[in-house]
Write a structure and sequence with these properties.
The protein is mainly alpha-helical and about 300 residues long. Helix content is about 75%, strand content about 0%.
């Protein structure tokens, strides 16, 4: 059993020597977005939303739309009605919790997002040398940079959610985010991890972009890409085949989101409204809960935490 565990762990990369291709591409995209915003700020939102929605459809939703394959690890696993109903039940119950206990829901969302983000990154960079405390710490640094680095936007969304606001002014939030960035840089240097260092650079640069761009660069350009790679290697599938397998659930999630926008009386056309963005983050939290639970089981099965 020990021999099999070690052998299986190796398929996910070699920790410090993991590929730099994807992180470097993400860094170049980040620099490009920063440059475009400085030069053409009035047109930036059009570019931002175009890239975000394309990537969200191509990788963001699909990486969580094949959770039904995780237990068997086989591409030909069917999508059962029981699975769909149980998945939707968790999504629906969490949405109901948001309606009656928004503060509790927000805390739950932040906790499982922190663990999930940290777990995926640590498994990519150090597949055999990670643990829950490291996952939690790295995930906290990531969310600390993204959320506190965009405090004014975050507080507007929190106000729309009718939850507590972060009692800091914008500059104080940026200082806190930069402090998280410094800690992340020190950690990357200590581990001599180039991918981790590049990730930190992307996060710090994204402070100077809108919240949606900062979240999108990390969630789509790093988290979803890494998780998709882990899934593809275990399931032994090519990108196109796995994407097609995810397509039914992907379309279902998009339809569910549109229904939610209508129920919440959000103007679908006005994508720049704070109500639209707020609804989006609530929706993401609801569909992410069962996904985070499924991925935790997946990582526990294919990795060994220290």
């Amino acid at each position: 059993m020990k021999h099999e565990s070690i052998k299986e762990n190796k398929i996910f990369g070699e920790g410090k020597d993991s590929s730099l291709k994807a992180p470097i591409i993400l860094l170049i995209v980040t620099i490009g977005l920063c440059s475009f915003q400085l030069a053409y700020s009035s047109f930036y939102s059009y570019l931002e939303y175009s890239i975000f929605f394309l990537a969200f459809f191509c990788i963001g939703i699909p990486h969580g739309a094949v959770d039904h394959l995780l237990e068997t690890g086989k591409l030909n696993t069917g999508l059962s009605y029981n699975y769909i109903l149980s998945y939707l039940a968790v999504v629906f119950l969490f949405f109901i919790l948001w309606q009656f206990f928004p503060n509790v829901s927000l805390i739950i969302f932040l906790i499982f997002s922190t663990i999930h983000f940290g777990q995926t990154d640590m498994k990519e960079w150090f597949p055999n040398l990670t643990g829950q405390y490291k996952n939690l710490f790295w995930g906290s640094l990531v969310l600390g940079i993204i959320l506190f680095g965009h405090l004014s936007e975050v507080n507007v969304i929190l106000e729309n959610m009718q939850v507590f606001r972060i009692p800091l002014i914008t500059n104080e939030g940026v200082y806190f985010a930069l402090s998280c960035g410094i800690l992340a840089s020190i950690w990357a240097a200590y581990n001599r991890s180039q991918p981790m260092a590049i990730s930190t650079m992307v996060l710090i640069l994204s402070i100077y972009l809108p919240l949606l761009s900062s979240f999108g660069l990390y969630f789509l350009g790093q988290h979803s890409v890494n998780a998709w790679s882990h899934l593809r290697q275990v399931i032994h599938s090519e990108n196109l085949a796995l994407f097609l397998k995810a397509l039914p659930m992907t379309i279902g999630a998009l339809v569910l989101f549109l229904i939610l926008l209508v129920l919440m009386r959000i103007n679908v056309v006005d994508i720049s409204s704070t109500g639209w963005v707020t609804t989006f983050f609530v929706f993401v939290s609801c569909i992410s809960l069962p996904h985070a639970l499924a991925m935790n089981g997946f990582y526990r099965k294919h990795f060994k935490d220290n």
